[in-house]
Amino acid sequence: MTNKNASIITGYLNYNSKIIEYKINRGKRKRVYLHIENGELEVRVPSKISNKEIENIVKEKAKWIYESLKKFPKVEITKIKYETGDIFHVLGEKYQLK
Length: 98
Hints:
- The protein is an alpha+beta fold and 98 residues long.
- The chain is 19% helix and 40% strand.
- The protein has two helices and six strands, in the order E-E-E-E-H-H-E-E.
- The chain has helices at residues 51-60, 62-70, and strands spanning 7-15, 18-27, 33-37, 40-46, 87-90, 93-96.
- The strands form two sheets. It has a four-stranded mixed β-sheet. A two-stranded antiparallel sheet has the order 5-6.
């Protein structure tokens, strides 16, 4: 079922030198839900919650997320190398490393 009021964006979690991609699904709900299915993380949040609050919740649950995703063989968690000038997209914002 499609919710016309829902909006989905992508976020990234850096944990243990690994980048974990997740989908943020905003909609009409009262609570935050972390849902893992087929090795993919979806964060279901109320429409009015801020991106910073979402980021804090995901960081708070990072260990659980990481351990849960490791159980799925399909998940590709890659180690990254940081270099000056690299650009990262986090919650729709661009950040350049200095």
